[in-house]
Amino acid sequence: MRHNRQTFTGSKEEDEALLRKLAKEGTLRRYDKRNKEAQARVEKELKLIHQLGFTAYFLIVWDVIKYAGYSGIFHVGRGSGANSIVAYCLRITDVDPIGLNLYFERFINDQRSSPPDFDVDFPSDQRHLILDYLFKRYGKHHTAFVCTYDTFQFRSIVWEVGKVFGLPKEEIGKIVANPLNPDEHHDLSRKIWEYGHRLENMPNELSVHSSGVIISQEPFYYYSALRPMPFGFPIVHFDMYTAEDWGFNKFDILGQCGLSHIRDAMTYIRENQGKAVDVTDTETIYADEKAKTLLKTGDTVGVFYAESPNMRELLPKMQCDNYPDLVIASSIIRPGVASSGMMREYLQRHKHPYGFEYLHPAFKENLSETYGIMVFQEDVMKICHDFAGLSLAESDHLRKIMSGKRRNSETFEQLKEKFFQGCQEKGRTDELSREVWRQIESFAGYSFCKAHSAAFTVLSFQDLYLKAHYPLEFLTAVINNFGGFYRTGNLPA
Length: 493
Hints:
This protein is an alpha/beta fold. The protein is 53% helix and 9% strand. The protein has a 7-stranded mixed sheet with strand order 1-2-7-4-3-6-5.
């Protein structure tokens, strides 16, 4: 049973009609009216959203975004939610899932065990305004943060139990330093050691989740006590995993300084130069030559998501000068990817695009953008689907298991068997099938959500445009919002 708020308007039928209306209007705004692919994708998504009961969830997020827009508050919708064309048409996200070949099934599918959740960032100094709106809109008895539990670790709990038994600090220190040999200690010490293991991983302190808000149908006191936070918003006494089990959909409302400095830079430009800059015109900023030059040369200090030393070193190596390549760069630079050898192989193929052979035509057809390398989680799904014939929902389920700690689960073994069975039915050789499986196993743990990178890369290009054309206002805004990746003294004069 789901305990989250069931409707936005008060009626499921009205909810469905409203979401359809908004999606249709948004399709005409985002795409040419003759774009049949976009229209079909919207219909497909709406059907599954309604079928799985997520209509109200989309509308609540849309309402928050609408409020932010009316209030002049910037936002960016990111995470797997950027795989949705309905979210794109509702302006929850600014990532075109058709243009980037993103799969809705990465966000929502009928085999997903956990509910989807939108991650939406707002300027860090205005996040409280969004939270205030949300809590007032749905009421303090129906809106709350989920909690997190800090658990006891063995060393810390031994110290606490030792104090309870009145042992001196020096004696407790001996037990902590030599926990594997309890026989060397006296009876009381062994008892402390035993209690320490019993209490290990038990809850110690309750704290608030960094961003997770849930909205209930019935008042929260039906399920849980509420604990007030220092700034007034209540916390339920269960965490996000329990919330999922009870059927709550989580809203992640986050704050970030990147949006704050974009907002402030635009304000300074208007005040200093009398110009109103529209950084939401992505067609213009993606094509801007000055912005692309900064990117290609790694001159990205202050640029959100692209200013780390490693990133500034990678960009010239790639000769990165466009949006899709920056999406890739921001993914392969991650520590796990770089250490796995994936980044080195990608750079080699990028430099010599005709100096390698694709493992199979399915790799060329689906992964030509990344030269046959599974850089993104969506790439793993594509290969499982096209090469082995798994459904997109099954492909996402397999990807999720392989990127976590459930590789020995029964479901994993079933999907693995189905993968090889599908390969056999498609006429793949055993040797080829095993090699593709090996690559999937190798890359699944390191690959990154493409939609998430794509969403943040929009902000990167907005920063590049502002830095290229209005460097004074841009860097002033960066400094006034805590300097980004670098300390203020390390920024260029």
